[in-house]
């Protein structure tokens, strides 16, 4: 079962994903969602603003470091924990 942070990130990802993808879960690969670099950047900005964190990566690094929704959840959680 996804926690609140995971549910929030899944909702943000789903808003930018191709509607034909269907269910999105932690193991869903970002490349399978039809999300382009601009949309990934928008998701990252939304997460930074909502959680008062700074994600230090350009879009190329983001694509190479974040393969699944779970990767994104773990990256955001690590930044939130580091800030606390």
Give the fraction of residues assigned to helices: 55-70%
Number of strands: 0
Order of H and E elements: HHHH
Largest sheet: none
Radius of gyration from CA coordinates: 12 Å
Residue share in β-strands: under 5%
Report the total helices: 4
Going by helix content, strand content and strand pairing, the class is mainly alpha
Rough outline:
globular
Question: What's the end-to-end separation, in Å?
Answer: 24 Å
> What are the low-pLDDT stretches, counting only 5+ consecutive residues below 50?
none
Can you give the mean pLDDT?
85
Describe this structure in words.
- Helix content is 60%, strand content 0%.
- It is mainly alpha-helical and 84 residues long.
- Helix 1 (4-16) crosses helix 4 and helix 2 packs across helix 3 (59-65).
- The longest helix has 15 residues, at 37-51.
């Amino acid at each position: 079962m996804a926690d609140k942070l995971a549910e929030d990130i899944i909702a943000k990802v789903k808003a930018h994903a191709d509607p034909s993808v269907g269910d999105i879960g932690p193991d869903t690969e970002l490349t399978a969602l039809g999300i382009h670099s601009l949309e990934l950047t928008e998701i990252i900005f939304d997460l930074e603003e909502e959680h008062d964190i700074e994600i230090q990566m350009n879009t190329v690094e983001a694509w190479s470091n974040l393969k699944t929704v779970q990767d994104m959840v773990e990256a955001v959680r690590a930044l939130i924990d580091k800030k606390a």
